[in-house]
Amino acid sequence: MSLGGGQSSRSSYPWLAFIIGVAIAGLWPEQWPAIYYYVGLVGLAWGSSFIPRKTRWLIILCLALGFGRAHWALVNKEAATHQLICSNKIVTIRGEIVGQPQPRSSGGSQLIVKIKSAQCGVETVSVSGRAMIYGPDSWLDSGVGEEWQFTGKLKNWPEGGVFSYRYSLFSRGVGIIMASEKRQLVGRKPPNLWLKLVNGQQRLADVLTTSLPEPAASLAGPLIWGGAGRLPAEWRNALALTGLSHITAVSGFNISLLIILLFNNLLLLHCPRLLASTTTSLVIVLYLALIGAPASAVRAGLLGLLMLWGRQLGRLGQAYHLLLISASLMLLANPFYLWGDLGFGLSYLAVLGLMTWTKWWTKLIERLPLIRYPLIRDNLAVTLAAQTWTWPLIFWQFGQISVIAPLANLLVVWALPWLTIFLLLASPLGWLWPEAQVFIFMPAGWLLTILLTIIKYLAHLPCAGFIVNWPDNWRIIICLVYYILTLILLKNWKFS
Q1: Who contacts 141 (Cβ-Cβ below 8 Å, separation ≥6)?
Q2: CA distances from residue 352 to 37, 345, 445 in whole angstroms, order as listed
Q3: SS3 assignment for the chain
Q4: pLDDT: which is higher, 211 or 64
Q5: What percent of the chain has pLDDT over 90?
Q6: In sequence order, what are the beta bridge partners of 132?
Q7: How does residue 371 score in pLDDT terms, banded at 50, 70 and 90?
Q8: Which residue among 23, 34, 287, 419 is buried most deeply as judged by most CB within 10 Å?
Q9: pLDDT interval class at 2 (50, 70, 90)
Q10: Peptide bond preceding 215: is omega within 30 degrees of 0, i.e. cis?
């Protein structure tokens, strides 16, 4: 098995080089001048023999462009965060809420607002971009499109590092953090299609809360709309121990998995491939519209559908090429996706894993005498294929390894496509017909009860998972070695 091969593979090298250049910029020590990097590239160009001669200078140029774009973004973003310097002074920020308020793990709420104006003491200052506002729990009821005036003090930025909270805020355009206890409503944005989608999502989420008993209601919301922060701590810990945290994130891994599992299960029901592809695509589009089409979810949905139709059209090699192009263009627009958005990395790695490893795992599982049923075999192969590429990134970020994750995903993920469909259908029906909510949500309630029982049981097993407190550099080296070895295995291990 190969990743595309031939001319298509060689044409992907410059795009891959750009991505590598961006990655190096995120790991580049701050005390090292950027000129060292470019001098090294020139030396590499002259002395390398492993880079194809026809594309050598193009690849070197793309490495330089990737590094330069990311380094420039980092320097300018860090400078932008200091536009508003008001040490020990009261700051007033007027801005529009642009995302659903989220609970903080330490208590309280956090809101992202688009800054309209700012005042430091009595002085009006020029500042643009977005701000993260920390406030009390009562602010969770705030609505997207509302314009507020917040008063408080600026907070210091957290430490940097790959996949840090600081880079995560940068990736969302946030350049200021403020803690506030006082606010005043200024106005509301006139309703438009986007606001109607967002408000509709909130009403549908409220239907889930009122129609399902606990703890099923606590899990149903994050499964469909995301937001693991609303889950009780014991269930967040249980999901982490079992390697199932991805099911509460509306991005990356779970959307890609939802696409392929829904497609495979439709095929097992003897649905024609073209009809299965079309049905899966329509379900995903409907899903993205209902959840308000957040950028991370749209990205994951497009990647998953790219993979799906690449297989359907028999042009998987071209799909690899388009995968790299899409990643490069997104990083060109916002390099912080690679360092601060874990979902970005998980999205692309999950899709790449499904493209490259599904057939490999399927052939391996077919050799096991105890796994002969197509439903179990295919779902297990899909789960392991996605995790083959994603678990090192999770290990790198959290230093946590779930021993029970493959079994947990096998026992749980089969239900995700059907649970998603049940909840997506039940939510608007329950909203329109409140008297029948208990019957409408009954299938989803049964599935949620089964999932919660499985998760709780597996999380309490001894050695379900463990934390490796190794330095970041060691974790990086282990992950790089792992990816190199898996690529060699993928290329050379053939099944007869």
Answers
A1: 101
A2: 29, 11, 33
A3: CCCCCHHHHHHCHHHHHHHHHHHHHHHCCCCCCCHHHHHHHHHHHHHCCCCCHHHHHHHHHHHHHHHHHHHHHHHHHHHHCCCCCCCCCCEEEEEEECCCCEECCCCCEEEEEEEEEEEECCEEECCCCEEEEEECHHHHHCCCCEEEEEEEEECCCCCCCCCCHHHHHHHCCEEEEEEEEEEEEEEECCCCHHHHHHHHHHHHHHHHHHHCCCCHHHHHHHHHHCCHHHCCHHHHHHHHHCCCHHHHCCCHHHHHHHHHHHHHHHHHCCCCHHHHHHHHHHHHHHHHHHCCCCHHHHHHHHHHHHHHHHHHCCCHHHHHHHHHHHHHHHHHHCCHHHHHCHHHHHHHHHHHHHHHHHHHHHHHHHCCCCCCCHHHHHHHHHHHHHHHHHHHHHHHHHCEEECCHHHHHHHHHHHHHHHHHHHHHHHHHHHHCHHHHHHHCHHHHHHHHHHHHHHHHHHCCCCCEEECCCCHHHHHHHHHHHHHHHHHHHHHCCCC
A4: 64
A5: 1
A6: 112, 177
A7: low
A8: 419
A9: very low
A10: yes
Distance separating alpha carbons of residues 372 and 87, to the nearest angstrom: 66
pLDDT given at position 294: 63
Q: List the one residue out of 93, 233, 109 whose CA is nearest residue 154.
A: 93
Q: How far is CA 84 from CA 14, 110, 129, in A?
A: 39, 20, 11
Return d(Cα 127, Cα 92) in angstroms, integer. 12
> Tokens representing 4?
């595309």
Are 112 and 172 within 8 A, CB to CB?
yes
pTM: 0.73
